Amino acid sequence: MVVHDREPFNAESPRAALRDRETPLDAFYSRNHGPIPRIDPASWRLAVDGLVERPLALSLDELRARFPETEVVATLQCAGNRRAGLIEVRDIPGEDPWGPGATSTARWTGVRLADVLAAAGLRAGAGHVAFAAPDVSQLAHPPQPYGGSIPVAKAVGPEVLLAWAMDGRPLPRVHGGPLRAVVPGWIGARSVKWLERITAQADPSANYFQATAYRVLPPEADPSAAGPGDGISLGPVALNCDILSPEADTRLPPGPTLITGYALAGDDRAVARVDVSLDNGATWTQAELDPQNGPWTWQHWRTRLDLPEGTVLITARAWDSTGAAQPESPAHLWNPKGYANNSWARLRLACRP
Amino acid sequence: MVVHDREPFNAESPRAALRDRETPLDAFYSRNHGPIPRIDPASWRLAVDGLVERPLALSLDELRARFPETEVVATLQCAGNRRAGLIEVRDIPGEDPWGPGATSTARWTGVRLADVLAAAGLRAGAGHVAFAAPDVSQLAHPPQPYGGSIPVAKAVGPEVLLAWAMDGRPLPRVHGGPLRAVVPGWIGARSVKWLERITAQADPSANYFQATAYRVLPPEADPSAAGPGDGISLGPVALNCDILSPEADTRLPPGPTLITGYALAGDDRAVARVDVSLDNGATWTQAELDPQNGPWTWQHWRTRLDLPEGTVLITARAWDSTGAAQPESPAHLWNPKGYANNSWARLRLACRP
After folding, report:
1. Which residues, in sequence order, are CB contacts of B3 under 8 Å at separation 6+?
2. For residue B155, what is the enclosing H or E element?
3. Do residues B188 and B79 both lie within one domain?
4. Which domain holds residue A143?
5. Which of A271, B69, B83, B240 is most buried (most C-beta within 10 Å)?
6. CB-based burial label for B303 (10 Å; 0-12, 13-18, 19+)
7. Model ipTM?
8. Which residue of B has its CA nearest to A215?
9. Cα within 13 Å of Cα(B171), Cβ side
10. Beta-carbon pairs below 8 A across chains A and B
11. pLDDT value for B247
12. What is the pTM of this model?
């Protein structure tokens, strides 16, 4: 793991670990805003309340017994993924320089949030489903437990889980055990870990991490002065890709070289094509797309190109199912908190015999 | 109207007509692939067949009597909108140089496709809903009536209509009367006019305009050799915007000048921000967003900037609700049929006192 902080613990997957269709459990990225809570599964209960007909309080055993078990393979991606590319444009003080590894894929087991909401009975006026956790973040203003929300339309999708297992093993504490939300296709921040409370409500969560953080502010904004509602609130992940091999800043012999990477289209869109260029986008070669592991995962891609001698810049970009492509330059996407960098992927190499 | 062809009739809305929240009926863009059919509403019937429990044959009166009347204000946008910007990069023989006016907004009245499909009873295995029309296109290979399809997940959305009225008036023949599909947020090609048959089926339509046309081919492809399944099939519209005032290539005095335009996010996304630049994207001013006329319409925007003397290049770009922005350059989006140009909007002016 590439560890950015010890407390709160923030670490990204190394590029090599991202080459598997499912990320090894011990290499799955970890993004935290406070201390990792220690929860006693025996006394833990999940509360479901707010705009519901029948508030619930469920133990893990009750949750498992009452609702059908469901498995979804899903990629999670942090909104700060690839922030390093924005920091190269202009510094972003106080935020970690995540590379492409704030992204990982796992097989999640749990129950559908939709089934739990149906059992509770959503009442008229329920527009959003808020998640609350016990980890108090000192980074929030004021310090508060972590939380967030998603609109009801997403919450009732069959892909949204309350998960107690990851790759067939009990959900590790660092990944939200005993229970977390898994919201495929949305920024990882909405897949709330150590889930304790689900509240149906009219409006999005007023929690700091929904109302103020995880927002694209205009370049001239002062993030320390940003208040609730400022900027673009992030939900679905934007189309993105990065290069996984060869390794960056390595020395390779010139000649035919396998270039691989991942792409992710976000929410209900699909990756339709990935192009790779050796001349900064003047000409492109279409990469081959690997078989995809279900609709909620990344799309691995590969191509073999003849690398010339000297300094080589490899560029990659993805297209989605609307015929849209990633934007070219991180300079035009720079924002004060460094979110949603989905500019072309670039990797520099020295090719010498 | 800016008329591109008389036969088949293809004409776009002038920029001035796009400044209204709803486009005047006589200025709504018209995109056709064959002669405009003359249909006798008295003998016309809509067939609903394929993977359904109860095939239907409905007159217009039966359709109106049997299902609740619904109104949706929706923007339609042709996949070839703003092709002119791609043609400036490299010629696209045989395709019309549409400007920003292959886009218009109307208030549509009809019934929900979802209600009609529910009455027919979709059978297991129905993945797509195909639309068929009688207008035979000589541009198809081989010549054939126009058709297309949308996935069932979109077809059952409350926004998808079978419409018989536009702005409260009977649907004009040129816009698909007596009945057309209206698929908000998707390329106009799927809002099939002169609708005669709706078929539930496992796969997308095999019609030329679904299987072969309306696809983003890679730049090196020979479009005359493209076959079914090649390229990226277009469905949801990609994030886009253009500048509506001042008029292009006009001469204006320097000084504070109102700049307006439209933006469209496509399908279930929203326009979150629009930026305007006078220095080709080095710095941006956030435009003010007008009140939006419902979730399925474009987003008008406006800002007042101090234009300097000399040649002025105004640039605009939109951001959507995923925090994604439009890509910079049409050169990187060029494709052999000229679809889905959603690069930054640019408008050149001469400012002289």
Report:
1. B9, B10, B11
2. helix B152-155
3. yes
4. 2-233
5. B240
6. middle
7. 0.94
8. B323
9. 26
10. 92
11. 87
12. 0.95
